[in-house]
Amino acid sequence: MPLRLDETTAKTQTIWVHGRELRSERMRDLLASAASARVEFVPESSWSDPERSGDPPSLLVVSPRDLPLDEAGRALLRRWTRRVAVVALEEFQRAEVALEVIEAGVHDYLGLDKTDADELEMRLRLAAHRFEREAELRRESLTDELTKLLNRRGFLVHAQERLAASLRNRRPLLLLYADVDDMKSVNDQLGHHAGDRALVTVARGLRLTFRANDVLGRLSGDEFAVLAEGATLRDVRKIERRLRAHLAGVSISLGAAEFDPSSPSSLQELLGRADSAMYAVKHRHRFRLR
Q1: Among residues 109, 140, 171, which one ends one of the domains?
Q2: Residues 202 and 271 in one domain
């Protein structure tokens, strides 16, 4: 029975293929038959920037002969494996290549000389399942249990990737650092359940204010951060007004720092500037969101 990838993933029934060796009609028919899916070749422009390649497919099949396995190539492959199940496939299995591509992060490596149609079907299914399990574990390890935003580690991982993309695309980013006002008083006077509700309210306000592709995180107890693509310091007041409308009486202090790809800062420097700006606002009692 042909593999239906939607049994293990929620993605569309499409296999993307990258590599000249895989462009034969025989390879296309074999993949389409084994996975009961549409086969499409990945344009080089999409391959080089996974985050801007649109919705990911059910599976990505790559040719090791067309993969640069230098440091930059492995980094690109890791970016793909965080978005989709990746299987390395070639006509003839090479033992010296197998370890390289697995260490680079692909979910399986196959040579057709060692694989029949039934095994190909099974291995594609297992790769899709392995990706989903890894993605689930990664989401759990990077997510704050209370607010369901990214936790500190998750925010740093995603923000670092976004800074690297900003350098490639020459697009500015805005880092906003928010701290809930008088959180200790809320916990002491009303109890920790009230404090938790305030944190959940802030998280909901951030989701309603920012776009789905912006990076939202809870960094510590009552501190939140957002990395917004395409925004600058000129947008801070407008963002504040939108956010204030969603906070249901919870007060926060907000600081911001801009990432300029023509004069880049490290993520830690950016966080430090935004944190300092937030504390300056808190101490001056200006721009408080009430």
Answers
A1: 140
A2: yes
Helices 117-142 and 25-35 sit at what angle, rounded to 10 degrees? 70
Question: Residue 62: pLDDT above 50?
Answer: yes
Clarify whether residues 89 and 160 are in a common domain.
no
Q: Is the dihedral of CA 129, 130, 135, 137 positive or negative?
A: positive
Q: Looking at the domain assignment, is residue 147 inside a domain?
A: no
Residue range 201-255, pLDDT digits in tens: 999 999 999 998 899 999 999 999 999 999 999 999 999 999 989 998 899 999 9
Tell me how far apart the alpha carbons of residues 105 and 89 are, in angstroms, rounded to a whole number: 14
> How is residue 30 written in tokens?
């074999």
How far, in Å, CA of 50 to CA of 265, rounded? 23
Q: Are residues 93 and 159 in the same domain?
A: no
CA distance 251 to 180: 6
Q: Are 172 and 231 in contact (CB under 8 A)?
A: yes
8-state DSSP, 106: -
Residue type, 38: R
Tell whether 124 and 185 lie within a shared domain. Answer: no
* DSSP structural state of residue 52: G
**Cα(137)–Cα(103) distance, integer angstroms:** 19
User: Residue 89 pLDDT more than 90?
Assistant: yes
Q: How confident is the model at residue 165 (pLDDT cuts 50, 70, 90)?
A: confident
Cβ-count burial of 184 within 10 angstroms (0-12 exposed, 13-18 middle, 19+ buried)?
A: exposed
Same domain, yes or no: 125 and 208: no
Which token pair is 17? 């293929």
Tell which residue, 114, 116, 58, 47, has the closest CA to residue 87: 58
Whether residue 251 lies inside any domain: the answer is yes
